Amino acid sequence: MTFWSALIYFLVAHYGKLLTPRRAKLLLGVFLISNYLYRAVINPDFNFFKVVGLEDLFYRLTRIPPSNPQKE
Questions:
Q1: Cα(56)–Cα(63) distance, rounded to whole angstroms?
Q2: What pTM does this model have?
């Protein structure tokens, strides 16, 4: 979660210049807090980046084995 958050912040605020760094931090903070609250209240196994497919892409590109591989 931390890796993807930092990457998204860099792409939005510095590389793409879509938002000011302050607004990018604010939006990222809101996203992280809402994600944490969702995990705490509703589903502790929820991972937004797994739903979107970024986590799987990361493991495929880096060839690092996942810490808890899914059993098929």
A1: 10
A2: 0.59
